[in-house]
Amino acid sequence: QVQLVESGGGLVQAGGSLRLSCAASGGNFSAFLMGWFRQAPGKERELVATITRSGGSTYYADSVKGRFTISRDNAKNTLYLQMNSLKPEDTAVYYCNKRNSPKLDWGQGTQVTVSS
Questions:
Q1: Sheet of 92-98, strand order
Q2: β-strand pairing of 18-25 with 92-98
């Protein structure tokens, strides 16, 4: 079973940047269409961005389009999310997982807090 470990979160001022990483182990990472998700307090988990197996095609939620960039390095079994021009409403716990079902076991996530 693939295990996912997210990292790179932190506290940043509005307008700042962070780069999240998701390290996958124990499976064939390159076979999966992957995504980043986030969950803010009191809200449902939502899809932020997705990337195809080769990395050749991406999708972004309207709320992050033009500010976030998803990428992957299949040789390193790692998924990335570059987040620029951060806003307070981006505050959430960020998770990575397969885009489609069945999902892998969720990791612990990484907290992103954006202060105004």
A1: 10-13, 110-115, 92-98, 34-39, 46-51, 58-60
A2: unpaired
The pLDDT score that the predictor gives to residue 1 is: 84
pLDDT at 83: 98
Handedness of CA 66, 75, 112, 36 (dihedral sign): positive
8-state DSSP, 97:
E
| Structure token pair of residue 31 | 């076979």
Q: Three-class SS of residue 31?
A: helix
Three-class DSSP category at 88: helix
Segment 18-44 mean pLDDT:
96
Number of neighbours of residue 51 by Cβ within 10 angstroms: 23
113 - beta bridge partners?
11
The values of phi and psi at residue 75, to 5°, are: -65, -30
Q: Which of 62, 39, 26 is nearest to 111 (CA)?
A: 39
Tokens 């932020």, residue? Answer: 48
The answer to whether 53 and 33 are in contact (CB under 8 A) is: yes
What integer pLDDT is reported at residue 73 of this predicted model?
A: 97
